[in-house]
Every structure is written in C-alpha cells, then in structure tokens.
Amino acid sequence: MTDRIISCTDALAEALAEEMKRDETIFIIGEDLTAHDGIFGQFKGLHQGFPGRIIDAPISETAIVGAGLGAALTGMRPLLDLHFADFFTTAMDEIANQTAKIRYMFGGQVKIPMVIWAPDGGGLSAAAQHSQSLESWFVHTPGLKIVVPSEPADVKGLIKTAVREDDPVIFFQHKKLFAQTGPVPEEEYLIPLGKADIKREGRDITLITYSRMSYLSLEASEQLAGEGIEVEIIDLRTLKPLDFDLIVGSVKKTNNVLIVHEACLTGGFGGEIAAKIGEELFDYLDAPVTRIGAKDVPIPFSPVMENFVLPQVNDIVNGVKKVLNR
Amino acid sequence: MKTSKKENLALFKNMLLIRAFEEKAGELFEQNLIPGFIHLSIGEEASSVGTCSVLRADDYVASTHRGHGHMIAKGADPKLMFAELLGKSSGYCKGKGGSMHIADFSIGILGANGVVGGGFPIIVGAGLSIKLRKTDQVGVVFFGDGASNRGTFHEAANMAAIWKLPVIFVCENNLYASTTPSEYTLAGGSVSERAKAYGIPGFVTDGNDILEVRKTVAKMVKRAREGKGPSIVENKTYRYRGHFEGDPQKYRTRKEIEGFRKKSDPIERFKAFLKKEGHLSDKSYKTLKIEVGQEIEESLEYAQDAPLPRPEAAMEDLFVNP
Question: For A34, A103, A196, A227, which has the most beta carbons within 10 A of its beta carbon?
Fold first, then answer.
C-alpha cells in the first residue's frame, strides 16, 4: 500500500467523496456547509462535486437531527453535521429518545442508517460551550454506536464504515486534530467498528485512550521510554462497540493499566473500562487501575486555566509512574 | 370534493371501527389487562379518518401518544394493535412498544410517539427524503394544540417552509394540552394562524365534520404533491375521555363533555348526514355495527391467544449489526 501524508479534515472529505460517489442516498445536512466547505473546511469539494446533496440548514439542531432521522427511516442515508458537539444539548430528544430508541421500540421493523458528525474537545480557548467531550452521555444511551478516532487514517477508514452502517453512529472528531497530519493509504480500505488499535507496543503498562489523548499519550511514552519504561498504547477508536478483547490481551501481558481521556473524570468512560478490568482481570493486576481525565469543572477560557483543567503530557507521564510506583 | 355512497360508507365504517377499538381498549384497561397507560381519542375520529382517507398507502404519517385512530385510519391491523397493547410477541412491535409506540412502516406509519411534538422533525425528514428521491409522496404529522408550543413545531414548520417540503401539519385541537386548557397555553389563540409566520397556508376546520376535514386536507395534499410546499390544518375537535385512562379530569365538567357529545359527535353527525343522503338506513347501520363488533372481537381474541414474548427477546432488535 502506498501512503500519503494528509490531514484529518482532508481524510474526512476524501472518504465522504468516495462514499457519496458510491451511494446516491448519502447526503449531508448542517449549518454553514456550502459557503466555506463546512466551518472547519471538513467537507472540501463535496458541495461542488455533489450538487444538491450538501444541504445548508437553518440554525435548528433539533430539526436537523430529527430530519436526518425521518430521512433515514424513509430510504436515505444522511450525515448530520452538528457544528459543535456541545450543541447536542439542543437536539437531545431527537438523539436519545427518538434516534436511539425507534428501531428497538418498534420491534426492529426499521433500520436507521445515519451518522451524526460532532466536532468535540478543548485546547482552543473556545471556553465552556465549545470545548466539551460528551461521549459518555451517549455511551450511556443504548441504541447508538460511538466512534472517537484520532489519526487521519482512522478517520477515513471509520467514517466510511460509519456511513455504511445500518445503525445510528455518533462520530466525534477532535477539533484540535483537524490539522493533524498522518499517513493515509492511497487504496480504498475500511476499518470495522469495535476494533481498537495498538498505537505503540510496550511491556510495562497498558495505556488505554482515544481521540486527541492518543497523541498526548504517544508523546508521554517517548519521554518514558527514555527512562526505561515501555508503554503499550491502545487507541480504542470506537467506544461502542468496545474492543475489550484487545484490552484483555494487553493487560495480561503488562499487568498495569492507565486510562486517559479528555472528558471530565467523574462519570467518564474510563470508569466503565476500569470496572470491566476490575471484574474480569483482577488477578492479572499488579496495581489499581488508574484514570486520568479533565478536572470536574466546565472548560475555562483563559489558556492557563484551560491547560490546568485538561490532561497534559506531564500528567500522563506522572500517571504512568504512579501506577508503576516509579 | 364529492364522495360516493361507497366511499362515504367506508369512511363511516372506519370511524365506527376506531371507536369500537378504543372503547374496547378502555374496557381492557379498566380490567387491568393492559399494562402501563393508554390515551384514547374517542370523539376525534373525524380528524383521523378524514385526513388519512386522502392519503395513499405509500404516503407517510407520524402519529402521537393518542395514536390508535391514526393507525387504524391509515390501514393498520387491529389484531396486531391489540396484541401490542397486551404486550404480546405477535404485536406490531413484538411487545416492545405498547400503546404509545405502535408503528407499521409497511404502510407508511412512522410511529406513534411518546414525546409530545416528537413527530414534527421526523416528518420533515420524510418530506426531505421524498424531495431528494423525487417521488410525489406526502407526509402528514398529527399533533395536538399542546405540541404546537414545542420548539420542534417551530423548527419543523420553518424548515419545511424554506425547503417547500410535501408535508401537512394536522393539528387536532381538543382544547386541552393534557390537563391545561389551550386557551391558557396558546399565545395568539390559534394554531393555524401560526402558519402566517412561516408564509404557508393555514386552515381551521370543524374537526368533527369528517367531510370538511377531508376536503381541506385533500386540497393541501394535492398542493404538496404538486411541489407547492407545506401547510397547517387545524381540526377543532374534542376528546371525551381523559388525557389518559384513569385521568380524574378535574379541569373540566361532566356537563362540558356531555355538551360536546350531544352537539357535535363526529359519528352521530356523519350518520345523520348519511341518512339524509339516503346512503344509510337503520338496517344497514345495524349491519355495519355488527360487522365492526365482530372484527373487534376477532382481533381481541387473536391478541389474547397470542403468546407472551420470551423475556430474553428484550435483548433483540437494538441494532441491525449488534
């Protein structure tokens, strides 16, 4: 396979162009999509390439998500751009009470092939209402699949799978990773949901993470390698379905676990992973499973405070050392 | 819009069927045979039958928590409805939905909805899908006066209007949002007048006059099929039962309910009309009543004989690809 180095946004646009060409029922609705190819340039070229299928909506997140649902129920395959993941709150009934439940409560009569694309995360001084990581809300609502990619190749392979799914998928993409570049295969490929990826192999500790924290964890691991600590990084890529098998294999090897996510610690997905490891792998652990997440406050504006609240490379380095008692 | 004797009698029979279904559901509930709670639409049959009578099988309907009438009017099978109400595995939703969540996608019923105002955005999506697929289908969303105060109504009306979607918003204004009078909750005093704000047509009908409902909705359906966009039809009607079965109804008097029943019952009014037109005799009325009664009894029997779901079936139907 030949690889090129491209960004996460370009990987997304490229994947969607391939899929829209393949399947005429795919269309995209959201706010401000055609003037600047989406507010992050994430849909570059699509509106020119697929006229009429990139639809600018009024500022009506409730109706955007509900309309996506109605279209998915009647033969289309919509992708909804939520503008910012923080705006989930304005469409919550359509997601949690309608989209997540309709197939189930109607006894499986219908499929819901729909993707909600939600740019999330902090680190950009966007403050409390434009910086959140809300994946736990949706993990806690049966009926939704949750994707949280980090690198461009994962973005491309996973979005292609997501739009082909017959179940509703929430596809988070971290805003601070949009410009992040990485190798992406030239040839067509798909990454299945529920397959985590080992981003770095190591013998001393299993570091379970996803989204932007995957990169910060890599940075921390390079530092730790200098001190003779070899970290194994598992990037979950999807939270639902969850690739627990990969975690099991790694923990049996390293006997130590650190979980890192950007979402605030209390009630975060790390607690779920920690509990599962505790229930199923207790005998393999040399130390308590430890979690790192944002502090339990809204994301503050001023960079000094924001950096204090969000996990940093140093926090991860210290977290690993704490687990290993080094 | 002229209706033939045959059409009129079919409409009338459908109204009788809905009323008989709901009266039977009320009885079953009273006997503790239906788990949970149910919302009956007795008194509102002209709106559901009048509206659905001008729809095709491939047109879409989004319904409400008070949806039994819409379902039957669109062609749903009372057998599978009773089975669902009783929580049986052969019910429309295999016992996973119950009264508030019945759907039949094979005849365009996108589902009853337990959330007031939940159907608006869904029907907008169906309308958008129709437009993108370039068919001449239409979508109808039923809603109550109470739902017109939800943000979903306004977002959906705006969106349907700017995209000229083939969607008809059919309000069943029964004067009460649960227990609260619409007189108190509805700014401006009218649902249909709200259409003006979105630059779309809005009509009020005597919602207990089936032919008036039918005529008005038919015009709006034709308009929608021709690509001229959405509209609002507000059928003024009245429900005889409480918001839910068992509702103590402290917000209104028995006298008020009896007044509506005597003065403007949709079935009695249509019956009188049919007799005057010579479409219905005492004898043919009696025959219709017997036929409807038999269908309800047979449907209920089917439902009562149907097996309960396996408890483990609760783990099925969440995802297409689990």
Answer: A103
